[in-house]
Design goal:
The protein is mainly alpha-helical. It has 2 domains: 43 residues, no CATH class; 80 residues. The protein is built from 4 helices and 3 strands, in the order βββαααα. Strands 2-1-3 form a 3-stranded antiparallel β-sheet. α3 runs antiparallel to α4. The longest helix is centred in the C-terminal third of the chain and has 35 residues. It binds zinc ion. Zinc ion binds next to loops.
Length: 127
């Protein structure tokens, strides 16, 4: 379950499913007790078009990650497309959650792809 929290300094919303210690928007350090948490499923977050436009779908990097780790990158691309659809519908909290998931999976696919590539390289080298 993803949590959307609101920064007490810049009052913008961000994904807080892993309890961040600073605001990803303005960099202000965050005291968990002052956070206004809203569960992703129930929240109807109001956001401006500008704030919605700022959400990164990570589509380009997700597409690039196909080269590194095919199965993971497909999942990342799915979440990127979900983010784009959420942005189009103006669903800010869903877009933020899907964007964060796309980013995590995309990074994981780069790391796993890098490890597999490294192992493959070592395997060839030691033969
Ligand atoms: Zn902030």
């Amino acid at each position: 379950m993803s949590d959307v929290a609101r920064c007490p300094k810049c009052s913008r919303y961000f994904d807080n499913s892993f309890a961040v210690s600073f605001c990803p928007k303005c960099g202000a350090s965050i005291d968990g007790t002052h956070l206004l948490n809203e569960t992703f499923a129930s929240s109807k977050v109001k956001a401006s078009a500008g704030e919605i436009a700022q959400i990164d779908s990570h589509l380009a990097l997700s597409l690039l990650s196909i080269i590194f780790c095919f199965p993971f990158s497909i999942v990342a691309i799915v979440f990127s497309i979900l983010t784009i659809n959420d942005k189009r519908r103006g669903n800010y909290s869903a877009a933020i959650s899907h964007s964060a998931l796309a980013k995590k999976i995309m990074i994981a696919s780069f790391i796993i792809g890098g490890i597999l590539f490294g192992l493959n390289f070592l395997g060839r080298f030691s033969r």
